[in-house]
Amino acid sequence: MALGSLLGLACLFPSLEAFLEQRFQPERVLGRQLLAMYSQAVRQTADLDTLLPYVAGSLRQHLAARNVSMWLYQADERLLVLAHDEGTLAADLVELPVDLPPDSLLGAQTVSDLPESALRQGLLLLGVERVVALNLQAELVGLIALSWGADEPPPPLGAFRAFDWLTGPLALAVKNARLIAELADTLDKLQLAYRRTIDAQEEERRNLAVELHDDILSRLTTMGLTLSQSQRQLAADPANFQICLETLSQETRNLNARLREITQGLHPAVLTDLGLIAALQAYMDSLSKHVLPATAPRTIDVTAQGFDGARLADLKLERDVYYITRQALDNAIKHAQAEQIFIHLRWRDDAVTVTVQDTGVGLKAAPELLMGQQGHLGLLSLQERTLAWGGRLSFQTGSGQGTTVYARLPVDQASTNPGHLQAFTHYLRN
């Protein structure tokens, strides 16, 4: 009897229809199952952690596979990264290099038929027999890898034809879920950065309040008492009155100098007038006038390459390079217990780099753990100023090995004399 006649008769008997369809048209059955799976998957796209397990688990169930793994493509590194797997992989690999042309990974394929490559070798090592590329037009989004084992051979490749029209929509679902996850992560980071910035601003305000209260206000109080005493002595003791006026005049000059120091700390005029290198020299010269910890370094050695009297056109960038250098230096003076500190600034064609290295005790914990904690807001300030320019900040440290802070800030203004070198040494104590 012809298949068409059997199917026509089977319409009267649903169980017989299902049996014949499963027996003679497995692709149709698989397509229907995958369509039902995809319809459910679309409703899960807001959560990547739910979508991937659902797709992998459904495929494993419908295809009777031993293992189904979901891989996401990292285009910038040309890597497939394991995001989820159902079952047991034959090897412990979580990254696979993609060293094939983009058009080599399209739809469902047998791994042994792929061109010779590191990707093919990695998949074979994992025991993968079939792969389904998730492509969104010409963009590779990810890969589904499937394996069955010797006792359960894989379905014929023709049974995977349903994937040809499912991979695009499924790739879109995966990409959307991934973008949502990345957006949520970015929002979390922005909120954390905002809270840390507020904390840093509050710390700066507290420090300024302490300076004004403990120093400036106490001096003003003393000046007020001296003035009151002078008024009482004006008639009775003119000679002593003159001494009081001289004392008051000297204290006024001292107060003026101290206020200049505070305002210079907030934004040094020499940075505006003469530029980065001169401002750093002026700041280091002023350190010898401050009360420094007993563990402060003996010398600070500075080298600057590529500046040659020229200045960065973006004054805000110049300001932040100054404060990054100064904050890293202040941290080393306060915490490192170092004998020496070395500072190197370099202006290249596409970046300005700052390196601050000390010979001290090293950080007690990873910088990422210390950032924002009480007493370590300086590390947060370094990070925020660097990231604001799309730069990169890194630390090298270890117990008894000192600490090296490296910041790289991109610029679109090349140095006019990249080989020019300046060197200075500042002595903080004998």
Short description:
By secondary structure, this protein is an alpha+beta fold.
- Taking pLDDT < 50 over at least 5 consecutive residues as the criterion, the unreliable ranges are 1-25
Work out the helicity level.
Answer: 40-55%
CATH superfamily of the largest domain: GAF domain
Order of adjacent strands in the largest pleated sheet: 3-2-1-6-5-4
Distance between the termini: 108 Å
Basic shape: elongated
Return the CATH topology of the largest domain: Beta-Lactamase
Output mean pLDDT. Answer: 80
Annotation, overall tally of beta strands: 12
User: For this structure, what is the CATH class of the largest domain?
Assistant: Alpha Beta
Would you identify the CATH architecture of the largest domain? 2-Layer Sandwich
Order of helices and strands: HHHHEEEEHEEHHHHEHEEHHEEE
Please tell me the total number of domains: 2
Q: Would you tell me the structural class of the helices and strands?
A: alpha+beta
Largest sheet entry? 6 strands, antiparallel
Number of H- or I-type helical stretches: 12
Radius of gyration: 35 Å
Tell me the β content.
Answer: 15-25%
Could you describe the 3D structure shown?
The chain is of the alpha+beta class and 430 residues long. It has 2 domains: 21-183, GAF domain (Beta-Lactamase); 274-427, Heat Shock Protein 90, CATH 3.30.565.10. 51% of the residues lie in helices and 19% in strands. The strands form 2 sheets. The chain has a 6-stranded antiparallel sheet, sandwiched between helices. Helix 1 packs antiparallel against helix 2 (14-24). The relative contact order is 0.07.
